C-alpha cells in the first residue's frame, strides 16, 4: 500500500475551506451589503456614482462582499441596453506607488483583451497615466476599478487624485471611472493628501470584526459541504468560532482553524474531529499567525518592522518611538519610499502590538521626561528577517540587518547612511 492514499473518512470536499472559495451568499453582513447596494445603485440608473471605500481588518468580508456585489451588478446591468459596465480588479499587495498601480491597471485591461502588456519600467508617471486614460476611454461606459489592499501605496496617492478627475479634466471623454478601494487600515484615509480627500468624495463602508455568534452561521454551511456526515463533534464549529472571535474576529481564521482540525484528525486516521483537535489546531495556527501577521503588514508596516529589527540586531532595545522614527525615515529613503508621520508610525507599532509581534513598555520618569513608551520585538529576529527576505523590496535591507546581527561592527558605515 502506498504512502499517500485518498481520504475517504474526513473531507468530502475541502474546497469550501479554501481561501479562494466564494460562497453562494454572504452571511452576517446584511447592513454592510445594504449600504454597498445603495452605493452601486446609481450605476444601474446611469447616474453619477460616488467612489466607495471599504475598511476593515483581514478576514472581515470586504473582498468576498465586493466580488459578490459586483457579480450581481454585472448580471443585472446586462438586462439594460443603456448600461455599459466594465470592471477592472487589481490587488495592490505588492504595489507601493501610484505608478505601479497605473501600470497594473493598464496590463489588467490589456490582459482581458489578449493584448501585449506594457513594461513596468521605462515610462514617466504621466505617460503611464495617459496610457491608462486611453485604455479606459476605449472601454467606455462605467468602469468600476477595484483596488484591493490600496493602503499599500502609502503617501503615493496620485492615482486617487487623477482617476476621479480624469473626466472633468478632459483626460477621458466616454467613460466614467468609479473607484472601489479596499483597505485593512482604518486610518488610511487620514494619511491621504488634502487634495485627494477632497477629490475622492467617497462613500465609506466599515466591516467590523465578527463575533462568535456571527462566525458560527458562516462556518456551518462550509462544514456541511467540507466534511462527511457525522464526522464533526457538536462542539467543533462553536469552538472554532469562539477562538477566532476572541483573537481577531476573522472569518478566514475560523475557517483555517476548522480545516487544520480536520487535517489533524485525518493524520491520526480517526473518524471523528473533536474539540481536542481544535485546541491542537489553535496552537499550531498561533505559530503560523505570527509569520502571516508579519507578511500581511503594509509596506509602511514592513518599514517600521525593519527599523525595529535593526535596533534589535544592534541590541539597542527597547527603543523610544522618536529614536525608532529616525531609523524608519532613513530606511524609507534607502527604499525610495515615502515616509509617514511619527504619529502614524506609532499607529503601526500599536497594530503590531495587537498582532503579538512586539512588546510595549510604558515608562514614567516624572517631571524630567514624563510618560512615554518603548518597543522591542516579541518574536525571534530570525523570523522577522525570514519574512523581510521573502519581500523583494526589503531583501537588501534585511541582509544588512542579518549581517549586523552576526557582528555589530559589520557594515556600520552602510547602515548608518540609510
What does this structure look like?
By secondary structure, the protein is an alpha/beta fold. The protein folds into 3 domains: 30-206, Rossmann fold; 210-294, Helicase, Ruva Protein, domain 3 (Orthogonal Bundle); 297-416, Arc Repressor Mutant, subunit A (Orthogonal Bundle), CATH 1.10.10.10. Helices cover 51% and strands 11% of the residues. The protein is built from 17 helices and 8 strands. A 5-stranded parallel β-sheet has the order 2-3-4-1-5, sandwiched between helices. It has a 3-stranded antiparallel β-sheet with strand order 6-8-7. The longest helix has 21 residues, at 275-295. The chain is globular, with a radius of gyration of 24 Å. The N and C termini lie far apart (58 Å).
Main traits of this protein?
globular, Helicase, Ruva Protein, domain 3, five-stranded parallel sheet, Arc Repressor Mutant, subunit A, Rossmann fold, 418 residues, 3 domains, alpha/beta, 17 helices
Amino acid at each position: 500500500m502506498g504512502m499517500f492514499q485518498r481520504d475517504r473518512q474526513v473531507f468530502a470536499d475541502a474546497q469550501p475551506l479554501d481561501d479562494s472559495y466564494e460562497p453562494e451568499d454572504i452571511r452576517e453582513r446584511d447592513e454592510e451589503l445594504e449600504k454597498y447596494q445603495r452605493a452601486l445603485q446609481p450605476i444601474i440608473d446611469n447616474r453619477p456614482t460616488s467612489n466607495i471605500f471599504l475598511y476593515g481588518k483581514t478576514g472581515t468580508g470586504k473582498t468576498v462582499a465586493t466580488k459578490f456585489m459586483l457579480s450581481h451588478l454585472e448580471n443585472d446591468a446586462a438586462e439594460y441596453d443603456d448600461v455599459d459596465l466594465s470592471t477592472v480588479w487589481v490587488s495592490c499587495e505588492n504595489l507601493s506607488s501610484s505608478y505601479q498601480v497605473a501600470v497594473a491597471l493598464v496590463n489588467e485591461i490589456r490582459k482581458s483583451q489578449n493584448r501585449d502588456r506594457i513594461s513596468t519600467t521605462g515610462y514617466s508617471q504621466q505617460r503611464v497615466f495617459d496610457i491608462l486614460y486611453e485604455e479606459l476611454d476605449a472601454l467606455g461606459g462605467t468602469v468600476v476599478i477595484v483596488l484591493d489592499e490600496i493602503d499599500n501605496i502609502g503617501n503615493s496617492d496620485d492615482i486617487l487624485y487623477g482617476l476621479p478627475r480624469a473626466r472633468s479634466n478632459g483626460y477621458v471623454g466616454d467613460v466614467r471611472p468609479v473607484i472601489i478601494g479596499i483597505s485593512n487600515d482604518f486610518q488610511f484615509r487620514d494619511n491621504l493628501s488634502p487634495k485627494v480627500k477632497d477629490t475622492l468624495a467617497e462613500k465609506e463602508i466599515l466591516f467590523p470584526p465578527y463575533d462568535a455568534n456571527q462566525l458560527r452561521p458562516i462556518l456551518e454551511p462550509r462544514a456541511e459541504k467540507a466534511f462527511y456526515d457525522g464526522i464533526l463533534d457538536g462542539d467543533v464549529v462553536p469552538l472554532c468560532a469562539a477562538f477566532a472571535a476572541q483573537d481577531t474576529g476573522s472569518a478566514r481564521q475560523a475557517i483555517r482553524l476548522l480545516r487544520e482540525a480536520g487535517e489533524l484528525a485525518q493524520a491520526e486516521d480517526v473518524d471523528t474531529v473533536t474539540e481536542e483537535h481544535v485546541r491542537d489546531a489553535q496552537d499550531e495556527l498561533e505559530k503560523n499567525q505570527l509569520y502571516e501577521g508579519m507578511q500581511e503588514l503594509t509596506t509602511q508596516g514592513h518599514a517600521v518592522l525593519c527599523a525595529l529589527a535593526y535596533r534589535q540586531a544592534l541590541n539597542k532595545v527597547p527603543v523610544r518611538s522618536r529614536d525608532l522614527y529616525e531609523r524608519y525615515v532613513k530606511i524609507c529613503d534607502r527604499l525610495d519610499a515615502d515616509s509617514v508621520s511619527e504619529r502614524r508610525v506609532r499607529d503601526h507599532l500599536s497594530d503590531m502590538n495587537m498582532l503579538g509581534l512586539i512588546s510595549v513598555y510604558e515608562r514614567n520618569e516624572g517631571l524630567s521626561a514624563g510618560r512615554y513608551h518603548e518597543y522591542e520585538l516579541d518574536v525571534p529576529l530570525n523570523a522577522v528577517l525570514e519574512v523581510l527576505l521573502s519581500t523583494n523590496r526589503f531583501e537588501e535591507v534585511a541582509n544588512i540587518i542579518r549581517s549586523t546581527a552576526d557582528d555589530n561592527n559589520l557594515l556600520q558605515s552602510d547602515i548608518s547612511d540609510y
